[in-house]
Amino acid sequence: MPSRRTHPDVERVLISEARIHRRVAELAREVTHAYLNTELSVVGVLNGSIVFLGELLHRLPMPTRLDSVVASSYRAGTVSRGPVEIYRDFRLPLRGRHVLVVDDILDTGKTLSLICKHIRQHRPASLRTCVLLDKPARRLVPFQADFVGFKIPDAFVVGYGLDFAERYRNLPCIAVLKPQLYPHPR
Questions:
Q1: Residue 71 domain-assigned?
Q2: How many CB atoms lie under 10 A from the CB of residue 174?
Q3: What would the pLDDT profile of 43-72 be if each residue is shown by its tens digit?
Q4: CATH code: domain of residue 63
Q5: Domain count across the chain
Q6: Residues 6+ away with beta carbon under 8 Å from 130
Q7: Catalytic positions, written as ranges
Q8: How far apart are the C-alpha atoms of 57 and 64, rounded to whole Å?
Q9: Would 182 be classed as within a structural domain?
Q10: Contact, 143 vs 112, CB < 8 A?
């Protein structure tokens, strides 16, 4: 059985496990500084953010409430396919709360833009976003995350929660798959 570190489907590692852990610790310090002495409502965008969200939450010292949304426009592909759909909405009341939306990757901007627009309708005290990866070359909607782990080139990446067709989320690094394993957009 192949090691998690040297999966045979990986073409190259883009960001090592060690670099990810260091950067998540730095992001947690940045978020802590921004929300010092404040209760924080964290809304994770599932499923992709789950690994990043878990590690980030463990490092936040302030009182934290957790909720999640499930939204996507990928539908088992490598590029966004049409409108973003919210499949499961958050459940905690967000009115008057300080809200941090956590996602795995900011790509086209459509998903985070829609989720933030939806949350703003609930009138939070503040709303910020935190992403592990930012891929600005793919942006279709003007959107900037408040906290960014890494800016990456326009490559299809998996690992540390990111998937292709629900596979590879368990890789401990951010990796580029071998191109022959997935369909290329036209």
A1: yes
A2: 26
A3: 999 989 999 999 999 999 999 999 999 886
A4: 3.40.50.2020
A5: 1
A6: 27, 31, 56, 100, 101, 102, 103, 145, 146, 147, 148
A7: 107
A8: 8
A9: no
A10: yes
Q: 42 forms bridges with which residues in the sheet?
A: 66, 100
- Mean pLDDT confidence for 15-19: 97
121 located within any domain: yes
What is the C-alpha radius of gyration for the chain, rounded to an integer number of angstroms? 16
pLDDT per residue as tens digits for the range 22-39: 999 999 999 999 999 999
How far apart are the C-alpha atoms of 108 and 30, rounded to whole Å?
24
pLDDT in tens, 90-140: 889 999 999 999 999 999 999 999 999 999 999 999 999 999 999 999 999
pLDDT reading at 2 higher than 50: no
Tell me the residue range of the domain where 74 lies. 18-153
Token pair for 122? 């609930």
